[in-house]
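Today's session is about reading a structure prediction critically. Students often jump straight to the picture, but the first step is always the sequence itself: look for stretches that repeat, for charged clusters, for runs of hydrophobic residues. Only then move on to the predicted structure, which in these notes is written as discrete structure tokens rather than atom positions. Here is the chain we will use throughout the hour.
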Amino acid sequence: MLTQTILRSPAETFGYSTNYLGNLLTKETGHSFKEILLMRRLNIACNLLQTTDYSIEEISSLVGYENHSSLFRLFKQQLGIKPQEYRDRIRYPVHLSDKKEFLPNPYFK
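Below is the predicted structure for this chain, in token form.
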């Protein structure tokens, strides 16, 4: 499992098992390691979409996905839109009084 692999190094550094470290993160943050990783990837991808002209494929790779369809899936699940639509909205925002077009922050559901 990918999350176990990613947790292995910090767990070894602190002398914990990967399961213990994962459970500790969940207890302290209220989010699983997988959720934290997805939120971080989404945050970085949003920043890159807003501040660069990198392609969606390049951004997918930079945030740790081998296949760019994973980034599309993450955006659809968390924001309900595609990455390119996010980029278009963030660069050319609609009037803020138009609530249906306002893009919500995915971390405050």
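Discussion point for the tutorial: The longest helix spans residues 33-51.
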